[in-house]
Amino acid sequence: DQSIRIWNWQIGRCLRILKGHSDSVMALSLFSSDSFKETEFFPKIETQSSRNCDQYLASASDDGTLRIWDFYNGRCLRTLVGHTAQVEALAVQGSCVVSGGFDATIRVWELPSGKCRHVLKAHSDHVTSVAFIGDSIISTSDDSL
Question: Which of 22-26, 28-32, 48-52, 122-126 has the lowest mean pLDDT?
């Protein structure tokens, strides 16, 4: 159903359903706004449960987009468009989101602006995972490189 469901695993109840993607959601990453300046899209969220909790959720989808969500109220804050096929992988570090997909590219996005800063064309087949390690990005693919 292309949704993201937030569960309380202790009581086995769905707390919230996030809808917005038009195809399967393939990857998720939680992050906080501690590493970048507050803006209208990323305001400081004050809630009873915000004691050092992550405040935002990034999602990657087979619809070719990434979405940034307010974790507490479920509102989609921004849609990142640039991949030309399904997006299978994502990672968040500081003010950067990195994504990889079936277009065989890795894209580096800036938060909170949502601008794509770099397109890395290092694979000949779709990117299956991405991760940050310090200032580097690690990626895997179904290619034979």
Answer: 48-52
CB-CB contact of 19 with 2 (8 Å): yes
Separation of alpha carbons 54 and 46, rounded Å:
12
Q: Whole-model pTM above 0.90?
A: no
Tokens matching residue 86: 């399904």
Across 62-80, b (16+ Cβ under 10 Å) vs e yields bbbbbbbbbbbebeebbeb
- Closest C-alpha among 14, 109, 17 to residue 60: 109
Name every residue whose Cβ is closer than 8 Å to that of residue 130 and which is 6 or more positions away in sequence.
89, 90, 91, 98, 99, 100, 106, 137, 138, 139, 140
Contacts 24+ apart (CB under 8 A), 3-7: 4/28, 4/57, 4/59, 4/69, 6/71, 6/74
